[in-house]
TrEMBL record:
This is DUF397 domain-containing protein. InterPro entries: DUF397. Residues 9-63 form the DUF397 domain. It comes from Kitasatospora xanthocidica.
Amino acid sequence: MRNAELSGAQWCKSSYSGDNAGECIEVAPGFPGLVPVRDSKDPHGPALLFPAAAWDSFITAIRGDEFPAEG
């Protein structure tokens, strides 16, 4: 899938982004089997495409606090 095919995507900002405009990601639902992800500071830049199962595993790990916090 190319970025041109994402031009009509409805992007959603992460609920964990808060008011800090500097560290936000957005995801675009509605792409069966894929989860497009982009940097909210660069809406016309590239998007990463993750298989839905890999994204689900990542979110589960985040919610399970499986990643060390920054120092």
